[in-house]
Automatic annotation (TrEMBL):
Keywords: Hydrolase
UniProt source species: Vitis vinifera
The protein, known as: Probable 6-phosphogluconolactonase
InterPro entries, A to Z: 6-phosphogluconolactonase_DevB, 6PGL, Glc/Gal-6P_isomerase, NagB/RpiA_transferase-like
Keyword Translocase: no
A GO molecular-function annotation: 6-phosphogluconolactonase activity
Gene3D superfamilies in the cross-refs: 3.40.50.1360
Catalytic activity: 6-phospho-D-glucono-1,5-lactone + H2O = 6-phospho-D-gluconate + H(+)
Limits of the Glucosamine/galactosamine-6-phosphate isomerase domain: 18-247
Length: 257
């Protein structure tokens, strides 16, 4: 496997020959962090995005990880969710359930889906309240540095415009600095109504893996990590977790850096 790892000051950068190799590397990375955290604590809090990331998690449900990971300690969250019913084709919950969660023995009570009976605003408030309960009962910890929840691991993707979660370039939500979870009704990527974690929550997490594949995303990666980064900082360029950032690229996505 041709994997090149470098540190460019914005985190570890792993470049693989193909998306298939990215999936292999991502499974090993996720399993290693899971083992580290589950050896130390009774819960491992993992945040998923939607999009192509879920397909890239496919190796995690295979040997050896399916048997070696302590799935019973996993607690699963979404960095963003579309305000649609959970069985809707646009639902990030459905995407993750069909491609990942239905294949691993995580207790269903530890999978925190959006309340799909509520409005966007109501669902965002409800999700934030759920997170606060989990802080109270010790499943989720709070960052000593920021006071925002500190998730153990976020597995994220990036859109071709440089958005992460439902935080889009130039949108005022990018600057939200009080709420943990907020909502958007004019998302440029359909569907328009979504809820999303805010940057203070994203950046309070311990580990973040940013998984980016395909030539279509190379210009944004160049603008963010290249030798002369753009002066306009895109949302993806604002991602900066407390402990460790790791970028996973295939050759195409990394072709301009
Ligand atoms: O729209 C969503 O629901 C997302 O959670 C979003 O943030 C996603 O991760 C990126 O858009 C990348 O998606 P792709 O990898 O499919 O481009």
């Amino acid at each position: 496997m041709a994997e090149v790892t470098a540190d460019n000051g914005k985190g570890k950068v792993k470049v693989f020959d193909s998306e298939e190799e990215v999936a292999v590397g991502l499974a090993k990375y996720t399993a290693d962090i899971s083992n580290k955290i589950t050896n130390e604590k009774s819960s491992f809090t993992v945040v998923l995005s939607g999009g192509s990331l879920i397909h890239s998690l496919r190796k995690l449900v295979e040997a050896p990880y399916i048997d070696s990971i302590e799935w019973g300690k996993w607690h699963v969250f979404w960095v963003d969710e579309r305000v649609v019913p959970k069985d809707h084709v646009d639902s990030n919950y459905k995407l993750a359930y069909d491609g990942f969660l239905s294949k691993v023995p995580i207790p269903p009570g530890q999978v925190y889906a959006i309340n799909d009976a509520l409005s966007a605003e109501g669902a965002a408030d409800d999700y934030e309240t759920c997170l606060k309960h989990l802080v109270t009962n010790g499943v989720l910890h709070v960052s000593a540095k920021t006071g925002f929840p500190k998730f153990d691991l976020m597995l994220l993707g990036m859109g071709p415009d440089g958005h992460v979660a439902s935080l889009f370039p130039g949108h005022p939500l990018v600057k939200e600095n009080k709420k943990w979870v907020t909502f958007i009704k004019d998302s440029p990527k359909p569907p328009p109504e979504r809820i999303t974690f805010t940057f203070p929550v994203i950046n309070s997490s311990a580990y973040i893996a940013m998984v980016v594949v395909g030539a279509g995303k190379a210009p944004v990666i160049e603008a963010t990590l290249g030798k002369s980064p753009n002066s306009e900082v895109l949302p993806v360029g604002m991602v900066s977790p407390e402990d460790e950032m790791t970028w996973f690229f295939d050759k195409q996505a990394a072709s301009k850096i």
